[in-house]
Amino acid sequence: MAEYNLKDQVSDKYSLRGRVFHKIREDILNGKYKQGEELREATIGEELGVSRTPVREAFRQLELEGLLKMVPNKGTYVTGITQKDVKDIYMIRSLLEGLCARLATENITPEQMNEMEENVYLSEFHESKGHFDQMAQLDNRFHEILYESCDSKMLEHLLRDFHQYVYRVRKMTLSSEKRGKASNLEHREIMESIKAGEADRAEKLANLHMINAYDNMLKNGLIEMFDQGNDNEGK
Amino acid sequence: MAEYNLKDQVSDKYSLRGRVFHKIREDILNGKYKQGEELREATIGEELGVSRTPVREAFRQLELEGLLKMVPNKGTYVTGITQKDVKDIYMIRSLLEGLCARLATENITPEQMNEMEENVYLSEFHESKGHFDQMAQLDNRFHEILYESCDSKMLEHLLRDFHQYVYRVRKMTLSSEKRGKASNLEHREIMESIKAGEADRAEKLANLHMINAYDNMLKNGLIEMFDQGNDNEGK
DNA sequence: TCCTGTATAATTGTATACAATTATCCCGAA
DNA sequence: TTCGGGATAATTGTATACAATTATACAGGA
Questions:
Q1: B65-88 tens-digit pLDDT
Q2: How far, in Å, is the CA of B69 from the C1' of nucleotide D4?
Q3: End-to-end CA distance of chain A
């Protein structure tokens, strides 16, 4: 269940509208709805067995999250992420994940520390077995733990947003075998720095972790690939 | 036009619902609706002359922005900004304004550079005359120019949000006379670094600018003052 | 053929109606 | 008096109805 955990942002996760919100969100992130695609309120409502009202409310929130764009009196479209956006996000995330790691060093709870260690071990195991799906999930979770550990709602919320935003891109990136290995090592180093209470080191490593992730994407040409699906969103 | 413009998160700024959204937002930021206060959909709707539907949609977005909290089947409450939130925001802003200044050094246009210089001069003038209102406005604008100059929609959007978020606090801070003078000097130094193309220096100065602003708030006890209205939000 | 204007259909925007849930108040019993 | 319970009112959640806007199709003329 619930990896991407919007947690408090959408309070009523199990209400009707909450489910609508999460379902649409999932369908966007999983690629069921492509970039630039138009979503009709009535159609989505029928699919989910609800009226347009909760669908519209969900749309409004997804728009603010940046996943949808509602054009007045015209329609609602799946937002495209441009190459430039991805670059900017990784630049920003590099700084903020660094800050997050620094704060986590001071504020992480023993339970969170345990889960982070376990996460690193598990991911290394699955890497050795070539289980890419599990690795992707564990990678997600690693960052979630980090966000939860910094004890800052603001930062947590912000980083989670960005994390989600590049979800589709990241998924492709991680299937690159070499990066999986390198990423695991970086996770381990971050984890150990936090455990050792070395805030400066944790911050720098987390900075680097993002930069490396982005560089890897560039090298593999994954961004260009990703950007293509974006062009037909043109006008 | 329009790739999606996160700048106008709420695209239809001048539509009915858009106006509802901005009006409620303004009323929260200006303090008309106090922290912890319950907002009734029907009441707000009557005040603005609309039905509950657009009000609810606005609520949903304001919830995601963190200004409101909707409790299912109970009500909608104005979210408080805690002392901790303000601290976190300034920590985050310190990093991001630094990044923004760095990027601005590379991407600022001549027109923007001119406006920034003019802004600095004007603010120094008004400072000498004790025109605090104008200074506050120019301070706002200085940061706006900086955000526009970095040529990153993502970063611009983010910083603008935070800027707004601490609007009430900032307004109080700037009326402190000494800080106005110091702030002006810092603006000047940032401006000159950008003009000279010294990205590293601009980044560091912008970092510091935020830290100083926050420290000043602490010294003057403005945060504690601000936090009080927050306590009765209790459980 | 290609453009254009108009009628029609489809879709969004808002208001209203009704259902579900929660809060309030009053009354009676201990 | 104080506590509990139940009826009533108030509020939110969702569905539906209608208005406003936009897209589509088709006919007619250059």
A1: 888 999 999 999 998 778 888 899
A2: 32
A3: 38
